[in-house]
Design brief:
Oligomer: single chain
Shape: elongated
Structural class: alpha/beta
Largest sheet: 8 strands, mixed
Number of strands: 22
Strand order of the largest sheet: 5-4-3-2-1-14-17-16
Number of helices: 19
Strand content: 15-25%
Length: 607
């Protein structure tokens, strides 16, 4: 069977644009001789639609769009994700063929952890489903249905499916693609069936979907893989007779099948009406996983938004992790800007490591012509950091706006002089500088319609080392889920030849930015380490406390200094009110603030 996996970038709520992408992918797959084409979970509406799913007219528009697609679908079988409004709402996969909706499968396992909230919106399906295409039986699943071991996939395999397809919207975190592929390989081995994962790609608010679609055979070997962080139509020829023959030789599976057959009435599988797929063209080119496929790009067919990629077999996932995370951040930023209609972004460029990374990401994601930076020195700004900021901006070719703040700081001090009489300068005066800078950035945003990018990292967000209405002010927090130690690694990677692939500026970040001790430069000779543990230590404590939910005793038991552990836990807990007011930002770790980690602001528990 020739299988096509359409890894597409859907936009939540833009049903018309999503249909255009589905059409182009369907036609490209048909022209390449595919018998079956898969589209991601909720491809019609985009994922996650959240409370749009509570609107009857939204569900009605999605249903009308599906009927429109079905009427146009001839010469190929398409499986497409959509929200089905029946007696309740279901996260469903529609089988389109012969100009009609042939059948509908309803997702059985609804995730309700981490970033997922599907039990708020959907009713669960009750059973698996298999579809007969010619002499082949195909099992249908949606995302979490394959994450859970056992049914519905096992029931579908016992009902005779030698190919189990999974349409998915699986959010990214660092290393997720490899984890996902290993898990599917195990499911394929367990079920003696091929498994095909078709993933959504693109940015949606705080989430990034990495695509990384693939097909594994019944031995768990990956035989075709799409790229990460880009749209692609992956073609793959699957030898399902090979899986059937392997089952015949495997006594344990035959015993299980025999047992299932004797109790078929109790099996939780719907056998959908059979379909006869179109006969493949005798002259069709070999698919990506065929030895005769030829060089990369051979025979690629233009498909509107998509290209049918004749990729080399087993296109490797992005490595190392710095490259993968950088690609995720770039895509997330690009899609947030594009999908929300911004023409330009602006950020404060201090000459520090965090703003340097955000500037590079913005230029790489959008092009330097769509990026502005402001350089806003005060009396505490070192000449070297300002020189580094200007040098980086010049290398990137972004717009530069010089806005010195000393006169504004003096004006604030004059207004507040009587109120502050008799009190020494303290954090108040430091925060005033940050808030003045935030006001200037927001003024540019209001006047020109630019999106303000904030530059705080996860380590600072965790402990509240940020100024509310100051450096926290903005529209999108690009690196809010990137720990400080990873910020350094990403900057170092961006300066390597690998980081300058394509037409990117080579090694744009001055070495002194990477080597200099981090400082907010809000008072004389200030260093971050004056207020925080060293970042190498801080990030270890934060990983245990935030990512792993470890308590004080567990952290100290690992040899981490007790005083630093206790201080860090206190700062994290007290900063919850700040994080609630932070802009959205891109999730790249397993436990991002907001969707993943939800803690009360009013909270006296310490442990």
């Amino acid at each position: 069977m020739r299988l096509a996996l359409c890894q597409m970038n859907a936009t939540v709520g833009d049903i018309a644009a999503n249909l255009a992408r589905i059409r182009s992918g369907r036609e490209a797959a048909r022209e390449q001789g595919a018998e079956l084409v898969l589209f991601p979970e909720l491809a019609v509406t985009g994922y996650p639609p959240e409370d749009l799913l509570l609107r009857e007219h939204f569900l009605a528009d999605a249903a009308a769009a599906l009927r429109e697609l079905a009427a146009e679908t001839h010469g190929i079988v398409a499986i497409i994700g959509f929200p089905e409004r029946a007696e309740d709402v279901y996260n469903a996969a529609a089988v389109l063929a012969g100009g009609a909706v042939h059948a509908i499968y309803r997702k059985v396992h609804l995730p309700n952890y981490g970033v997922f909230d599907e039990q708020r919106y959907f009713q669960a399906g009750s059973r698996g489903a298999v579809l007969d295409l010619s002499r082949h039986r195909v099992g249908l699943t949606v995302c979490e249905d394959m994450w859970e071991p056992g049914p519905p996939a096992t029931d579908e395999a016992l009902a005779g499916a030698t190919l189990i397809v999974n349409i998915s919207a699986s959010p990214y975190h660092a290393g997720k693609g490899a984890e996902r592929e290993r898990m599917f390989a195990q499911r394929a081995r367990d079920n003696f069936a091929y498994a095909a994962f078709c993933g959504l790609v693109g940015g949606q608010d705080e989430l990034v979907f990495d695509g990384h679609s693939f097909v594994v055979d019944h031995t768990g070997r990956t035989i075709a893989r799409a790229g990460q962080f880009r749209e692609e139509l992956l073609l793959c020829d699957v030898d399902l007779e090979w899986a059937a023959a392997a089952r015949l030789r495997e006594a344990t599976h035959r015993t299980a099948e025999r047992s299932a057959s004797s109790s078929r009435g109790q099996m939780r599988v719907d056998v959908l009406p059979p379909l006869e797929p179109p006969a493949p063209s005798a002259t069709r080119a070999p698919a990506a996983n065929s030895p005769a496929a030829g060089p990369a790009g051979a025979g690629a067919a233009a498909a509107g938004h998509l290209v049918a990629a004749k990729s080399p077999p087993l296109q490797p996932p992005i490595a190392p992790v710095e490259a993968e995370v950088y690609a995720a951040l770039t895509l997330g930023l690009h899609d947030y800007v594009e999908k929300n209609g911004f023409q330009r972004v602006v950020l404060g460029l201090s000459g520090g490591i965090d703003s340097a990374l955000v500037a590079c990401l913005a230029a790489d994601a959008l092009g330097s012509e769509r990026v502005s930076v402001t350089i806003m020195p005060s009396r505490y700004s070192a000449a070297s950091t300002q020189e580094d900021a200007r040098a980086l901006a010049a290398e990137l070719g972004v717009g530069i706006h010089e806005l010195p703040i000393e006169q504004v700081v003096s004006s604030y001090a004059a207004v507040l002089r009587d109120q502050f009489a008799g009190r020494a300068s303290d954090l108040t005066e430091e925060n005033l500088q940050a808030r003045i800078r935030g006001n200037l950035l927001m003024a540019l945003s209001n006047k020109f319609g630019w999106l303000v990018l904030t530059t705080g990292n996860k380590s600072e967000m965790s402990v509240g080392y940020t100024t509310l209405y100051g450096d926290l002010a903005g529209g999108f927090a690009v690196i809010k889920d990137v720990p400080k130690t990873l910020v350094y690694r990403l900057c170092a990677w961006r300066n390597t030849p690998a980081g300058a692939n394509g037409d990117r500026v080579r090694a744009p970040i001055p070495a002194s930015i990477i080597e200099r001790a981090p400082s907010a430069e809000l008072r004389p000779d200030q260093r971050d380490q004056d207020s925080l543990p060293p970042y190498e230590l801080l990030d270890q404590i934060l990983y245990g406390y935030i990512e792993l939910d470890q308590g004080r005793d567990q952290l100290i038991g690992q040899g981490l200094p007790a005083a630093d552990v206790e201080r860090t836990i206190r700062m994290v807990d007290l900063a919850e009110y700040k994080r609630r007011q932070a802009p959205p930002g891109i999730k790249v770790t397993e436990r991002a603030f907001g969707r993943d980690r939800r803690m009360p602001i009013t909270n006296r528990y310490r442990g």
